[in-house]
Design a protein that fits this description.
By secondary structure, this protein is α+β, with helices and mostly antiparallel strands. The protein has helices at residues 4-13, 28-39, 48-51, 53-56, 59-62, 101-117, 133-139, 187-191, 209-212, 221-227, 236-239, 242-247, 265-270, 273-280, 291-304, 310-320, 325-347, 351-359, and strands at residues 18-23, 68-75, 89-92, 122-125, 143-145, 151-153, 160-167, 197-199, 202-203, 230-232, 262-264. 40% of the residues lie in helices and 12% in strands. The protein binds cobalamin and iron/sulfur cluster (2 copies).
Length: 383
């Protein structure tokens, strides 16, 4: 049987910085949380690990006879941040600038191969409905649960994607979990633009912009201003996090040539389905239907485009008259926003003023209209 050090060495060769081992027992706390939060409506129609909590929290259902979970964390913080290009640009959350899950899986599979070579069963999982990654990482001693619900790797912060190998090998598991590093800090709660962190470590997905931008259907009007320029994902609760900001710098990787932190909004709205899926195919897009990206882009135009811009005017008019009712409604909303901004620009001077007014007292609770995914088993994501 390989030692944990040998597995960690294999992981490092594949750019995975942190490895820990947890016993492959049922993840009881995660199971309880999944049921409770689903019952409380906090899952907002998500499937994924919520679809079958018993399965997602039992490593033995993934790999019969499982004894150990080898958990891995791979940093996605980059050395450089490309400047925002000119034009109306949409922001992409850091973890989605490039596909970090593929290289993570390559490293996990290399570890799994080593375990299989020693006659153990071993299967790699990353961002898969088969297992709740953060809870496994916490049990493996990799880090602590931040109040923003992210797993902060001890001494390195939360800019990490997580995955694991579930195996029948009886590897030595860590004893005890990592110390809490949040202390009295609560910056992430204040920084969340929609108040989605409803208690320390508890996210209301109805309001979490990461899910609001991924789920199918209309974006609730009360949340549209908070979307600002976000196309996919949200980083605010991590960008506000002191340990993540300061410690994250220890693990940075070069900026990939393919990194896509900004997306030109007018270009996106002109592209066809095939082009959008080719560009953004590694993202979780509900039903693989790029209209949800277009919906987000229309909201971004309403929030950030300069009023009176000819191309913006034309694209909104086209979508408003189109036969997709959801997109037409979002386009009309954006037209109204730009019109009201043009009117108030002279007086108040900024779009920011209008946004601030609409955000004031933001939404105690956005109804959990269950038009979202009710995930088929085996569905992967969202990250
Ligand atoms: C569903 C899902 C989402 C949903 C719901 C998020 C959520 N908090 O559950 C949405 C779409 C909103 C989402 C958003 C994001 N996600 Co996500 N998501 C998942 C997925 C598929 C399942 C998560 C899950 O099962 N949650 C279940 C709930 C019950 O777990 P939880 O919120 O973590 O709850 C725990 C804590 O509350 C803790 N706890 C209990 N008591 C207490 C008490 C205190 C005081 C504290 C602090 C904690 C605590 O125990 C609970 C159970 O473990 C995982 C992949 C996977 N297979 O695990 C990725 C995953 C969690 N997501 C990930 C990422 C990167 C993100 C985003 C950062 C992406 C982005 N930039 O937009 C955001 C972060 C939002 C946030 N603040 O959580 C990473 C997290 C990496 C990390 N270092 O933590 C994962 C692990 C994917 C991966 N394999 O890398 N995600
Ligand atoms: S990802 Fe954004 S919306 Fe979701 S909890 Fe964090 S700050 Fe709030
Ligand atoms: S911002 Fe503060 S409270 Fe929130 S996760 Fe980071 S350290 Fe913890």
């Amino acid at each position: 049987m390989p030692t944990v050090d040998e597995l960690a060495r294999i992981a490092r060769e594949h750019g995975i910085e942190h490895v820990g081992v947890a016993p492959a027992t049922v993840l009881g706390r995660a199971r309880t949380a999944l049921y409770e939060r689903r019952d409380q409506g906090l899952a907002a129609g998500m499937g994924f690990t919520y679809h079958n909590p018993d399965r997602s929290t039992d490593p033995g259902r993934a790999v019969a006879g499982a004894r150990s979970i080898v958990v891995a964390a791979r940093s996605y913080l980059t050395d450089d941040e490309p400047p925002r290009p000119p034009g109306v640009q949409a922001r992409v959350a850091r973890y989605a600038w490039v596909d970090h899950y593929t290289p993570l899986r390559v490293g996990l599979r290399a570890m799994a191969r080593r375990l299989r070579a020693a006659d153990h069963r071993a299967v790699a999982y990353a961002d898969d409905n088969a297992i709740v990654d953060r809870e496994a990482a916490h049990r493996a001693g990799l880090g602590w649960f931040g109040k923003n619900a992210n797993l902060l790797v001890s001494g390195a912060g939360s800019w990490f994607v997580l995955g694991c190998v579930i195996t029948t090998a009886p590897l030595p598991a860590v004893t005890g979990v990592a110390a809490d590093g949040c202390g009295t800090c609560s910056r992430c709660l204040d920084a969340c633009p929609t108040g989605a962190i409803v208690a320390p470590g508890v996210i209301d997905a109805n309001r979490c912009l990461a899910w609001v931008l991924q789920r199918p259907g209309a974006i609730p009007v009360a949340l549209r201003a908070a979307v600002q320029d976000r196309l996919y994902g949200c980083d605010d609760c991590q960008e506000a996090c002191p340990p993540t900001l300061h410690l994250g710098r220890r693990h940075r990787r070069p900026l990939d040539d393919d990194a896509r932190p900004w997306v030109d909004v007018l270009d996106l709205l002109a592209a066809d389905d095939a082009a959008l899926l080719e560009r953004h195919g590694s993202w979780y897009i509900a039903g693989r239907d790029p209209r949800w990206l277009r919906r987000n882009a229309l909201v971004i135009l309403g929030n950030t485009a300069p009023p009176g811009h000819r191309d913006v005017h034309d694209v909104l008019a086209r979508y408003a008259a189109g036969d997709d009712a959801v997109l037409a409604e979002h386009a009309r909303w954006a037209q109204d926003e730009l019109a009201s901004r043009a009117t108030t620009a002279g007086a108040a001077g900024t779009a920011g003023a209008a946004v601030a007014i609409r955000l004031r007292g933001v939404i105690e609770h956005v109804p959990g209209d269950r038009f979202g995914d009710t995930a088929a088993s085996g569905e992967v994501g969202p990250p």
